[in-house]
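Table S2 (continued). Query chain:
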Amino acid sequence: MRTKLGAVLIAVALAQLGGTQANAQPNVENERLITVTGEGTVEGAPDMALITLGVVNEAGAAHEALADNSQSMNRILDALKQSGIEPRDLQTSGFAVDPVYSQPPQGQDSSVPFRPEIVGYRVQNNITLRIRDLTRVGALLDQVVTLGANSISGPTFTVEDPTVLQDKARSAAIADALRKGKLYADAADLELGPIFRIDENYVSPPQPYAAPMMMRMEAAQSDVPIEGGALTFRMQVAVSWRIDD
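Corresponding output:
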């Protein structure tokens, strides 16, 4: 894991307005402030992979396509559970039954009207699989394809709990803002007073890495090669200081 400080647009605001305070509470409109935005970026290793896998079947009748589809999906689900995948990591993410229409014959005169007819039905059932042991991703992909999965998207890599990495990015963003604040104050021959406020401007979700699907939609001969890469977490904070006279 490594931390780097990114460059961001700097906003420096100096304002001094007259007026009488009704009470002793500070009013930002009557403060002389310098404000900068700091950014912190942290990279960390993923600990979980998400895969959407599905079974697509076609048949002349909807109930036939559904029966074939359900048989294949039940076979996949049973195998995944027997291999140690917990039920909480298996979630249905899509189900559809659609008609299949006839297509115009090749070479048909385009001036002749063609009326498509329903010639069958397509059933698709998708599930989202969470894999918590990344060393098993390739083997599980090979297994589900062998068992009949013929529609696969992913894997997308993520982390189950991003809090630690997000906090490291926050610390890096504060350090970046402090550095910039001192730099601009020195350049403008100003004295920084106490910090007036800190605002978290931007929280970037981890940028996922989706591995390319290096596989054929048929039984593979070995585990699918998969690399987890790294995730990037990015935070932005705005820090304002009072300016001493």
